Amino acid sequence: MILENKKYLSFSHQLADTAGKILIKNYKSKKISKAIKNKGMRNELVTNIDFMIEKKIKKLINSKFPKHNILGEESGFTNKQSYFTWIIDPIDGTNAFITGVPLFGFMLSLKYKNNFILGLVDQPILKERYWNNISEAYLNGKKISTSNVN
Description:
Elements: H1 2-26, E1 34-39, E2 42-47, H2 48-64, E3 69-72, E4 76-78, E5 84-92, H3 94-99, E6 105-112, E7 115-123, E8 128-132, E9 137-139, E10 142-144
Parallel strand pairs: 3-5
Antiparallel strand pairs: 1-2, 3-4, 5-6, 6-7, 7-8, 8-9, 9-10
Helix pairs in contact: 1-2
């Protein structure tokens, strides 16, 4: 499944590039409309850009992997009875995005059955992209690791 993982990772980077372009284009834009969305016991802000990104990413996933499940933060779960599930957070840090603070990003992960096989966080304004697979983690293509401090 290692070759398969490379295929998914490459595609994940394409998705992050797509989301990043939308985020950069709309960063500090007057085109951002915001609403309060009740998520369980808390209220959170959500923007038209959250919905725009999620819709675009879901469309791209469906075109490449039409049988995979998708869980989107804004639109919920699309269950196609697949072992694969893509998980999308179109803007992690929506409040920062709205207020012009560059500490937000696009988040994506892929699960196979109950195991995460990849994760990706892209912060396009800071030009930082983190990703991992089962055994390694990277920042902008450079392998990273946790410290040895307990």
